[in-house]
Amino acid sequence: MSEPVADIAVIGLAVMGQNLILNMNDNGFTVCAFNRTVSKVDEFLANEAKGTNIVGAHSIAEMCSKLKKPRRIMMLVKAGEAVDAMIEQIVPHLEPGDIVIDGGNSEYHDSNRRAEELAKKGFHFVGCGVSGGEEGARYGPSLMPGGSEAAWPHLKQIFQKIAAKAEGEPCCDWVGKAGSGHFVKMVHNGIEYGDMQLIAEACDLLRKAAGLDYDQMAEVMDTWNKGELDSFLIEITANILRFKDENGKHVLPQIRDAAGQKGTGKWTCFAALDYGIPVTLIGEAVFARCLSALKDERVEASKRLPRPNVDASKIIPDKHAFIHKISKALYASKIVSYAQGFMLLREASQQFKWDLNFGAIALMWRGGCIIRSR
């Protein structure tokens, strides 16, 4: 049998998995790539990973044989049953002290359970929140690992090297025990829901009350992004507002105004209800998405209840002052969203005895993640 060569294995070759692997390779780590559909491994090695030090495996046994000890295996598979099924396949090939990392958006109760089950077998489990999307995974995400603390010394170098940097510091640190990493990521996503809804409402006021066109709205966002509202979401909102199709028409009004959701915002609200924490802003953001999905009902209601015919210029005589007030309202509302999110983190930390470091969590969110801001 050949000598183990890989520092870490990554299971799951969707775009997020591929980009994390390439990021690790760029930072000097040898990665073993595996996918349930093994043909994807060969495709990845022949294309995106061509000319790199990335190795592949066609079975879990082969993957484990290529890993240095303690084995570090990171899963990027769909949350839920798929994670449990993959762990079940991995476990027979592990030795005490090996590390299993779930890098998906798993529900924190599941991560609590998995940490406990694997600990009984002598293995370390880490639930790691990953934020930043496909681009972040490739060039530097925000990473929120929690679980078996004994695993951290074996992961710290890899994770902090591939993570985004803010003022030279990695946007990654140890979060806490059991499912704390996934809980922190869940709250991050809840705050993200709130941020996006706030920006949507600000845009609605700029458009319908201030009477700005899309290019003018984009200019306002550019201006806001140079001040206290400087953030990734404000930046991309400006880009979205000015984006045009091949015919020179703005794309935004052509998009169906119905938002979907993957569940983490909803989970944040469930947790808030469980622990009695009023995350009202995040809750309203989740309900706004639910409301937007009721497209047919909204269209019918708008026919029966037409909006008032009001001359905005008479209500808003000073447009610049009004826009300034919107920016201040947005800033204040963002503070409320973050405050409510951290209230929930504090309560969960007390409930589960996680001893979360809230300052460190805030620092992890300065770069790489979707809610990164000044």
UniProtKB/TrEMBL annotation:
The keyword NADP appears for this protein: yes
Domain 6-phosphogluconate dehydrogenase C-terminal, residue spans: 181-373
Keyword Transcription regulation attached: no
Any one of the GO BP annotations: D-gluconate metabolic process
Entry keywords, A to Z: Gluconate utilization, NADP, Oxidoreductase, Pentose shunt
Coiled coil: none
EC number from the UniProt entry: 1.1.1.44
Pathway terms, separated by semicolons: Carbohydrate degradation; pentose phosphate pathway; D-ribulose 5-phosphate from D-glucose 6-phosphate (oxidative stage): step 3/3
Pfam families with a match to the protein in the record: 6PGD, NAD_binding_2
Catalyzed reaction equations: 6-phospho-D-gluconate + NADP(+) = D-ribulose 5-phosphate + CO2 + NADPH
Listed GO MF terms: NADP binding; phosphogluconate dehydrogenase (decarboxylating) activity
Top-level division of the source organism's lineage: Eukaryota
Complex and partners: Homodimer.
Protein family: Belongs to the 6-phosphogluconate dehydrogenase family.
Function statement: Catalyzes the oxidative decarboxylation of 6-phosphogluconate to ribulose 5-phosphate and CO(2), with concomitant reduction of NADP to NADPH.
Name of the molecule in the record: 6-phosphogluconate dehydrogenase, decarboxylating
Organism this protein belongs to: Diploscapter pachys
